């Protein structure tokens, strides 16, 4: 019986082809835009997640300074308060995986006739691990390089491209402020960070070399930053507490006095960036859903017209033995068929649109099975929800009145 | 004595109107036995159509009792009424009332869809009934491609397809010319000879004369109930 009804619903759809297609168009646009918007939204989420993963996970950055002397107050970088010894002490704390003191600044790199301004980072070997940074060729420097302040360097992709063009940088010697440095490793590509800065435009050298031969700090043993990585996300809160307490104790800061360092939680920054894109993605989906709703109302409208037009037919069917639920099923099936067919076409167009967007704009697109399933479920739901009222109205007609209807 | 198909006991139907209750039908007692051929006559507004709607279970009486093949219709729910219309009664209308988008075979088979019959069996029985009314070659045609008389034959085939005990025909010849009317009446007469009970509403005396019993309504009351005296049409 259901098969016969499906066949009839199909025939009814074909009876007024243009109207069926226009009704379907509402669903096509609705589902298409939901699929497209979700693909773009999830693409943005994916892109942010990728960027966050290049930063390294569970990171804190301690920034020296934050002084208040004689009424003058400043935040990070104001004074040389953090030291290598602080970093070594923090490394002893529970829940700390990696600690890397950092002294960084912008310097002009020179190779033969080429020169390029880049961020030079003086640090210790745990830095690479904390930032989850790989070496694509060559090898990293070790603790002995830091101890003896050797002139070796790891070069990022962007800096390498600008200095060496097509040459292999490995083993070449570059100069920073007249000091020669040998490139012993090339870093893997990371792309932009959350602020949009190119992370690959960098040169990493041993901390001691940076302090003595490049930046020449007057305060021996002091560093601008200390990068601290917790063993897990759960450990971060306790690491933050014990680290702050340790530093206040080491710097002899009295109760009620401000910290002379500044603590930045990179994980929190990453979370907020992820949250922003998630909200944007939901917003896009919500806007697209409105068109799905409008499509559903279009189906209801046409089904109501159809019921009025076919009142006599309904009367005939009732006279020859159709029960109310038979009439209800018939009209519900028609609405469902229109919405599901519209959904299928919308799905194809939405995916095609997403692929086109990707091809034209380089935007990252993620088409997930989940979003397709959601679109389908919603379409079926809309077919039933908006088809029910007209179908109910049809099934509730009085057979005598319906038969008399012209 | 043969089985009583229709028995009405003081059946009445009244409507609420702005001017107060209006009795379209009151106090009708009628019994029709299996195998009878009854014509219901009367001017328009006499209540004959209201009575037909009651007989056809499209409507229920507001007073009195109506027993169709022994069941009190007033006590049945909407689904049970639908089942009675499907299995026990076959309708033939003045305006044929075929569904225009369906082939003749599908039109004839439609009551079987609601009876839950399988597709192959539906088709076989529809073809059989189409052949019985002389339209076996038109199974795949659409209603718009055949004449009015042929459409009424298809409607009769549809009424017959679920082997009902009773055929109710409401002015079946009202839209047909006299020659075609005679053919349709000849078909009804033949079906009645095969044992099917037929009740038909008409205002044409010639047509009514094909029936063997004539019932007359006036102002909502049954005023006469007599056997047919003489056949007017050669076909019946």
Could you outline the blueprint of secondary structure elements for this entry?
The complex is a heterodimer of chains A (406) and B (236).
Chain A: H1 2-15, H2 17-55, E1 59-64, E2 68-69, E3 72-73, E4 82-83, H3 84-91, E5 96-111, E6 114-123, H4 126-130, E7 135-138, H5 143-148, E8 152-155, H6 157-164, E9 173-176, E10 179-187, E11 202-206, H7 207-215, E12 222-223, E13 225-230, H8 236-250, E14 261-265, H9 266-309, H10 311-319, H11 324-361, H12 369-395, H13 399-404
Parallel strand pairs in A: 6-11, 8-10
Antiparallel strand pairs in A: 1-13, 1-14, 2-3, 4-12, 5-6, 5-9, 5-13, 7-10, 8-11, 9-10
Chain B: E1 4-17, E2 20-33, E3 37-41, H1 48-55, E4 63-68, E5 71-72, H2 78-87, E6 89-92, H3 104-114, H4 119-132, H5 148-160, E7 166-170, H6 178-193, E8 197-201, H7 205-208, E9 213-218, E10 221-227
Structure description:
- The complex is a heterodimer of chains A (406) and B (236).
- Chain A has 406 residues and is of the alpha+beta class.
- Helices cover 56% and strands 19% of the residues of chain A.
- Chain A has helices at residues 2-15, 17-55, 84-91, 126-130, 143-148, 157-164, 207-215, 236-250, 266-309, 311-319, 324-361, 369-395, 399-404; strands at 59-64, 68-69, 72-73, 82-83, 96-111, 114-123, 135-138, 152-155, 173-176, 179-187, 202-206, 222-223, 225-230, 261-265.
- In chain A, a hairpin with a 2-residue loop joins strand 2 and strand 3.
- The longest helix of chain A is centred in the last third of the chain and has 44 residues, at 266-309.
- Chain A is elongated, with a radius of gyration of 33 Å.
- The model of chain A has no long low-confidence stretch (mean pLDDT 87).
- Chain B has 7 helices and 10 strands.
- Chain B has helices spanning 48-55, 78-87, 104-114, 119-132, 148-160, 178-193, 205-208, and strands at residues 4-17, 20-33, 37-41, 63-68, 71-72, 89-92, 166-170, 197-201, 213-218, 221-227.
- In chain B, strand 9 and strand 10 form a beta hairpin.
- In chain B, helix 3 crosses helix 4 (119-132), helix 3 packs parallel to helix 5 and helix 4 packs across helix 5 (148-160).
- The longest helix of chain B has 16 residues, at 178-193.
- In chain B, 48% of the residues are buried.
- The mean pLDDT of chain B is 91.
- Chain A binds chain B through residues 1, 3-5, 11-12, 15, 312-313, 316-326, 399-400, 403, and chain B through 53, 56, 58-59, 78-79, 82-83, 85-87, 91, 93, 97, 99, 101-102, 110-111, 113-116, 119, 122, 158, 162.
